[in-house]
Amino acid sequence: MHKLKIIALYPEAGWGLPKVKSYASYVCTRAESVFRANMDVMETLGMVPGYAFMNGEDWGISVIQAMNTVKAANPGRDVLPLDDDVQKLASSIWDDYDRGGFDKSRRDHFREATENAEKMACYPGRNLSHGALHSLLKSMISGTWTAFEVLASSLVRESIAKHPRCFPHLTGNETFRFQKRESIRDAFRLAFNSDAKIQNAVESQCIDAVSLSRNLFIHKAGVVDQMFKDQCSEKGLTAWAALPIDSKLEFDGGVVLRLLQETIACGYSLLNGVDAWIVTNTPKP
Length: 285
Description:
Elements: H1 26-46, H2 48-73, H3 84-98, H4 104-121, H5 127-162, H6 181-191, H7 196-202, H8 205-220, H9 226-234, H10 238-241, H11 253-281
Helix pairs in contact: 1-5, 1-11, 2-3, 2-4, 5-6, 5-8, 5-11, 7-11, 8-11
């Protein structure tokens, strides 16, 4: 079993989402809010192992504290199995832990719990637990592709709908598709007249990496085939292109974080490019 490095998902500097801003076009403002929300979900998803482990530890401590408190007030009382008084008090203590914010001590506890969750999943014979955590990392990649796909579709379709005077070169009979990388790139090329800034964003290598890995996980259970190798070689993803056929593509937190951060940067470059294009190409009254 390979090391998952889930803790790498949480650098001290954060994920790099820019501060919320308003764009000249409401289309971009709206698309940004949805993209941000979707990427926030990815970040929250990655917290599940550490947060669940930490909550388990907090609950154990809460039960012990509740038992000691009840027994101190009622010497000789048998509190096992846990009676209603102990459970209610333990729930109250646990709730105080959970609502206490994320100061440095809690962040340190979370990081320790994340590392402990991975350690336990990597013990011999824990293939199911390890596989579950690896699947969580893969689902973050899949969700990131969906977030970018939604962003791309919104920017093209809504820009044309809300700013029709910016697109005199379109006939209205165009068919735009957003399920595949090249279809997305073609859509932006046609809609925005091959604008350099916009094309640089959608041509980013991270979009190839996220899409190709997502497709391999979803359609081939992560098993490398010749088509995957050829596609990676074509897009300059040399490390993946070198993987043996029938081997499995394995991710860790460091790889996932890099791809997610690059996709975030790509998404915001695309937003800025589309917004600038709309401003420039809006006919003057």
